[in-house]
């Protein structure tokens, strides 16, 4: 039997595994093991078209005219997008563009402002 770490919140030694999480039966605190959390943080590295590291809350500039799928709208070159949010998937930037609304962008079509 493997020894599981005690609860970081109440120090209870009777923790158990529930899928990918560890659970404390006394205070109901759930957390992921330290090794898995560190691997997830390192895997999420998003860079812009010129190689700058992007983070949540950054401001980026569009470097190419982008057609909006299912619409006749176009995001023009030089459009500034503020307060981006990084997400997993093909379009790794989630943002709100003035005049268009909520949309996903690929990091290869933006540069950090």
Automatic annotation (TrEMBL):
InterPro entries, per the entry: YjdM, YjdM_C, YjdM_N
Segments forming domain Protein YjdM N-terminal: 3-32
Alphabetized Pfam families for the sequence: YjdM (PF03831), Zn_Ribbon_YjdM (PF08274)
Domain Protein YjdM C-terminal, first and last residues per copy: 46-113
NCBIfam families in alphabetical order: phnA
Family: Belongs to the YjdM family.
Protein known as: Protein YjdM
Annotated source species: Thermomonas brevis
């Amino acid at each position: 039997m493997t020894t599981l770490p005690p609860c970081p919140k109440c120090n209870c030694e009777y923790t158990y595994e529930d899928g990918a999480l560890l659970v404390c039966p006394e205070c109901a605190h759930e957390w992921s093991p330290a090794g898995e959390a560190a691997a997830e943080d390192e895997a999420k590295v998003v860079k812009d078209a010129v190689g700058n590291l992007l983070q949540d809350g950054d401001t980026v500039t569009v470097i190419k005219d982008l057609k909006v799928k299912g619409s006749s709208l176009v995001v023009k070159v030089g459009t500034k997008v503020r307060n981006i949010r990084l997400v997993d998937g093909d379009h790794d930037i989630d943002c709100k563009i003035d005049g268009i609304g909520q949309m996903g962008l690929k990091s290869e079509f933006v540069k950090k402002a």
